[in-house]
Specification:
about 90 residues; alpha+beta; Ubiquitin-like (UB roll); 5-stranded mixed beta sheet; 2 helices; 5 strands; globular
């Protein structure tokens, strides 16, 4: 399925804004993304296996925090990263 990648993480995806990944759940999808683009999962998931606080994952425009959420080929996955500054 297609996964939208935010600008700050595109250094892992060779600057691609949309990449392919496979998986029946978000966990599987993130492991597949990390297989294809090493280091990407660590930027999104903490050591306890939870989505990092500054990261957001959307499935079909709905925010999701539970990585056991099921996904399929028809779903649109969007990853967003909060930016801070001031």
């Amino acid at each position: 399925m297609k996964v939208r990648i935010p600008s700050p993480l595109r250094s892992y995806t060779r600057q691609q804004s949309v990449v392919d990944a496979d998986g029946a759940t978000l966990t599987e999808l993130l492991f597949d993304l990390d297989r294809r683009y090493p280091g990407l999962r660590f930027r999104m998931v903490d050591e306890q296996g939870r989505v990092r606080k500054h990261m957001k994952v959307f499935v079909n425009d709905e925010p999701v925090r539970d990585l056991d959420t099921r996904v399929d080929e028809r779903d649109e996955i969007t990853i967003m990263q909060a930016l801070s500054g001031g």
